[in-house]
Write a structure and sequence with these properties.
Thrombin, subunit H; mainly beta; DUF7899; 5-stranded antiparallel beta sheet; WD40/YVTN_repeat-like_dom_sf; Transducin/WD40 repeat-like superfamily protein; single chain
Length: about 350
């Protein structure tokens, strides 16, 4: 599903969880950016088949036209409301802008515009049900469909707060279907989510991670009922990476190594504590975790793939693997994608390049 200029074109797909950081600006770049043509779903299908190990899923370029020739535009929804609902006080909320997020839940499609206006549409009637902005100064930053309790979580900032702090609200899909978006309730009210604080929704483990920059405390909540499970209070924690079942805590770098901890995502129990040796006077480009694999890259150094279970180390030459701008881990395929400029590369965890494409 893609949209442009406040018009949503539906061709099918779903959204995943993500991390949203607090920012003083009412709108900014997103992980999911709308394109002009409805082609992202097709591209994803092609990529899945290209990297699949099953022979019956692979196909040549000559088959693509036949496989996708029946894709047609089904419906078109418009989120734009030039009059402004609920007596909006922010002028940019009334202006037409790009669609940056689309979430589908049952028979409802939610579309979020870059301006911060979010609308819900019925697939059955092909009409707009309601807007999700329940306050005249609310700017919605992101959406998350919580399948655990069939609700939609909105993450917003407010003009009255100078757009400096994230506020989360959950609303049952049934209430939205009835046109009652204000029937929801606030989440994580005790947390100060001002920049650089954040909230991260982990759909795989059914958890929510929040970071309060004011007191340097990370908290993990249950995504089913939003109860607090445990807290992590350590000012030396620089980053937290989440994988199925575990969390990686990355601490402040010392002169010759970076301290690391692996925790159980369920209760915060420390499963392993270790140090990873680093080259002195070289900055760390990234540290990423994929299940038991740890990926470490320093400036002008080889990529290191460490198996934390047995300390087995694999290196990829810096001339073959250059620092990417983004990662996507493919858990089902045990592969990972790297994005650099206009090139997408597919790697396995033996450090081998599987394929690449522009």
């Amino acid at each position: 599903m893609v949209g442009f200029n406040s018009v949503v074109e539906i061709v099918g797909s779903e959204m995943e969880g993500r991390k949203i950081t607090a920012s003083p600006r009412p709108s900014c770049g997103r992980r999911v950016v709308a394109n002009k043509r409805p082609r992202s779903n097709s591209v994803k299908k092609i990529q899945r088949r290209e990297i699949c190990s099953k022979r019956d899923r692979a196909f040549g370029m000559s088959d693509a036209q036949e496989r996708f020739r029946n894709i047609r535009l089904q419906e078109e929804y418009d989120t734009h409301d030039p009059k402004g609902h609920y007596g909006m006080v922010l002028s940019f909320l009334k202006k037409r802008s790009k669609i940056i997020e689309i979430v589908a839940a049952h028979d409802i499609v939610f579309a979020l515009a870059q301006s911060g206006v979010c609308a819900a549409f019925s697939r059955e009637t092909n009409r707009r049900i309601c807007f999700l902005n329940v306050s005249p100064d609310e700017v919605i930053r992101s959406l998350f469909y919580n399948k655990n309790n069939d609700s939609l979580i909105t993450v917003s900032v407010y003009a009255s707060d100078h757009f400096s702090s994230l506020k989360c609200r959950t609303t049952r899909i049934e209430y939205i279907r009835r046109g009652k978006p204000d029937a929801g309730f606030a989440l994580f009210e005790s947390e100060s989510l001002k920049w650089p604080g954040f909230v991260e929704f982990d759909d795989v483990n059914g958890k929510v991670l929040t970071y309060s920059a004011q007191d340097s405390i990370y908290k993990v909540f249950d995504l089913k009922n939003y109860t607090l499970l445990y807290s992590i209070s350590d000012k030396n924690v620089q980053e937290i990476k989440i994988s199925p079942g575990i969390m990686l805590l990355i601490f402040s770098k010392t002169s010759g190594h970076v301290p690391l901890k692996i925790l159980s995502i369920e209760d915060g129990t420390v499963l392993k504590t270790f140090h990873h040796l680093l080259h002195r006077n070289r900055k760390v480009d990234f540290i990423e975790q994929f299940n038991e694999k740890l990926l470490v890259k320093q400036e002008n150094e080889n990529l290191q793939i460490l198996d934390v279970r047995n300390s087995e180390l694999t290196e990829v030459s810096r001339t073959e693997f250059m620092t990417p701008s983004a990662f996507i881990f493919l858990y089902e395929n045990q592969l990972f994608l790297t994005f650099r400029n206009r090139t997408v590369a597919v790697w396995n965890f033996r450090g081998e390049l599987v394929t690449s494409f522009d």
